[in-house]
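General statements about sequence and structure are easier to judge against a single worked case. For one protein, we set the task of working out the structure tokens from the amino acid sequence alone. The sequence in question and its structure tokens are set out directly beneath this paragraph.
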Amino acid sequence: MVSKTKFAISNSKIKEIFHHFGIDNIKSISPLGSGEYNAVFEIKADKSYVLKLAPDSSIPVLTYEDKMMSSEVFWYDQIKRHTDIRVPEVYFTDYSKSIVPTEYFIMEKLDGEMRSTAKLGVNAVRESTAFMLSQIHKIKNDRYGYIQNQLYDNWYDALCSMIQNLLTDAKRVGKRSANGEKLLKYAHKYKDILMKVECTMVNYDLWDANVICCKDKNGKTEYCWIDPERSFWGDRIFDFIYVDNNPIFSFKSKQKSIEVYNRIADKPIEINRENEIRYAFAQGLIGVIQEVEKYYRYTPHHFGWWRNVICYKCIFKNAFKVLKNG
């Protein structure tokens, strides 16, 4: 996907990076993945590696995207240490910007295919999603928010900060998000509900392209996780936004997936009015992100611009319908 944030780098500079870490005899370099923010390459040398580069330090990014490269490494470590989910091994990190004007890391290339192309049945997808979410939701913390920004003592303050940062991001490029302002007002209205939320790891981006299907030594499918950089400490219900791969649909529409999750989760999730409100905030936040990020990533000539517009308009309509009637 074309994006203004993707770092442009030559093959010779990639070879220089790998030489810095003692890896030479590079056989091939090729773009990798379907992401729209970082630049990602597969490098084949003595084995296959993945090189992931953040945007150039001179390129404006959203507040929560600043220092997101080190955040991703942090979350890989959390998943590796506290769950049974397989994630890539991170071999090298460099945040010095001495070779290239951006942060990057080199990690293991998982041998498998994206879940979106693996032709799995609905039940297999639901079970793998439930397993992953139930695992990370057992990782607890006592402070909320993005680790690369600021952490707060409760979910209400953290969520308000997330929304406000996006409003500030819009103003920075001369734009305004009336939807974001409306969402912030609703956050104040539902403060009592938000204050009660337990703090867990939240990925907020578990869609099919971020799950790699690998085969273990017995030939059984193993589900591996990539790209956890958008994770934060917060409300576990936010992770159901991409369950069944559609953030537009209502919380009630995720009932079958929630039932599978509840069989193995440390705490079951009920489909009730309070949780519908929490889910509406999950929709609202992703809506504001999509609305504001289009100014940073695309132009009106890009497909991503209009895809975002269509998506967040539908999301806001459904989220505000719930919050208005709460």
Observations:
- The first helix runs from residue 11 to 20.
- Residues 248 and 317 are 9 Å apart (CA to CA).
